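Final report, Chapter 2: Outcomes

The project's central promise was a pipeline that accepts a single protein chain and returns its three-dimensional structure in a standardized token representation, suitable for archiving and comparison. That pipeline is now operational. To close this chapter, we reproduce one record exactly as it appears in the project archive, with the input sequence first and the structure output second.
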Amino acid sequence: MSQKTIDYSRYNTFNITRRGANDAVLDLQMKAKNGKLPTAAHDGHWELSEIWRDIDQDESVRAVVLRGEGMGFSGGGDLALVQDMASDFAVRTRVWKEARDLVYNVINCDKPIVSAMHGPAVGAGLVAGLLADISIAAKSAKIVDGHTRLGVAAGEHAAICWPLLCGMAKAKYYLMTAEFVGGKEAERIGLVSLCVPRAELMDKAMAVANKLAAGSQQAIRLTKRSLNGWMNVARPIFESSLAMEMLCFLGEDAKEGVAAVREKRAPKFPSANS
């Protein structure tokens, strides 16, 4: 009986390669269209949220490696997308749905996902990177959730998984201050599974993915489903945090945050100067 295989040609923001024994490992590389970092524009944000549905249905795939092209893992949303979210209700509503889909689709994808993070890891890419079943960071990784720096609440995956991974105290510190976490420190506090030298990152990620692809698929997938029950318990927290993030895009602080990014300066938030 032939396996159901998915055609991924509709995804333009990824380099997609089949690797490992029987091509069972899907190497999913986010493209750095600017030659530096992968950034999520309108199309990239949708693709990152949607592709996990197809991977879940692809019977030829038994494990996934998610990584970034160029100088880092992910550079966050591009400025045009963020500006549109702050000014256009239709865009904000669409991105709200895509942000929900990204979290739920990664959690509900039965295939084990391994992330390999180097350099900056920010934004929607970081969501998938930290929700991955096995997250591997290079020592050079700089993980940051920069929502509060932009003037919006840390929604998306932040409220649902950071406290589970590294505890409430560390989650509050890094999410409220928007300070970056290096790869070694991320492993120490439990934010990522492993930390390795940059030169060993892809080899380690592929070794883990190949091991998962060669294991009992039923046992591995049901173990993932069982453990992700903790994420599902936190769904109401996630939903409210995402709504609070989108609410903040209506405020003056978000407008100032976007302007500060565009003008490459420190923000002067109105709420801090009233």
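Archive annotation: The radius of gyration is 18 Å.
This record, like all others produced under the grant, will remain available to the consortium after the project formally closes.
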